[in-house]
Amino acid sequence: MFDGINCKGEGTKFTALKKGDRIRPGKSAEAYRLKEVISDTEAILAEDYGEASPRDDIHGQGKWTTYDVLGHVDQAKMFESVQAALAAGNCLGIFPEGGSHDRTDLLPLKVNTSHHLYFPHSPLDNSSFHASRIN
Q1: Which residues of 86-101 are buried (b: 16+ CB within 10 A; e: fewer)?
Q2: Closest CA to 27 of 60, 5, 52, 51
Q3: What whole-number distance in Å separates Cα of residue 98 and Cα of residue 100?
């Protein structure tokens, strides 16, 4: 249950969470960054500039609900690998599935992108407004 930016639980283990993890209440589309863990049953959520506030979440404010934990993913090693591959003259494949860097699951590939799995040397143009044709 959210009470402002305070998150309260029963039978929870908030102390097992790590800095940067996010909590997503119920069926909410939003997940909120963990700012501080008080105990196994109480935590404080962050209000990040430019992001939705837990104070406004209708799924978590003032009522008990289930929640998901979205673990923080450190992207530093991935960016180092990309930089090293590009410096060595290798190619980089980008799959614009439309998700956020904070997501821990993958979204389905766009039609134009999945086309290139079968034709890997064809140019890619995702600026088309025609869903049935590949530019």
Answers
A1: eeeeeeeeeeeeeeee
A2: 60
A3: 7
- Written as six digits, the tokens of 33 are 């960054």
Residues in the chain: 135
For the segment 53-88, what is each residue's pLDDT rounded down to a tens digit?
788 887 778 888 888 888 888 788 888 888 898 889
Contact yes or no for 19/44 (Cβ under 8 A):
no
Q: Which residue bears the tokens 């766009």?
A: 110
Residue 134: the pLDDT is: 46
Instruction: Evaluate whether 53 touches 60 at the Cβ level (below 8 Å).
Output: no
- Return the structure tokens found at 14: 């908030």
- Residue 51 CA to residue 27 CA, distance in Å, equals 18
**What single string gives the DSSP state of each residue in 76-98?**
HHHHHHHHHHHHTT---------
What is the sign, positive or negative, of the torsion defined by CA atoms of 48, 54, 57, 59? positive
Cα(22)–Cα(71) distance, rounded to whole angstroms? Answer: 6
The set of residues, in sequence order, having a beta carbon less than 8 Å from that of 117 and lying 6+ positions away, is: 109
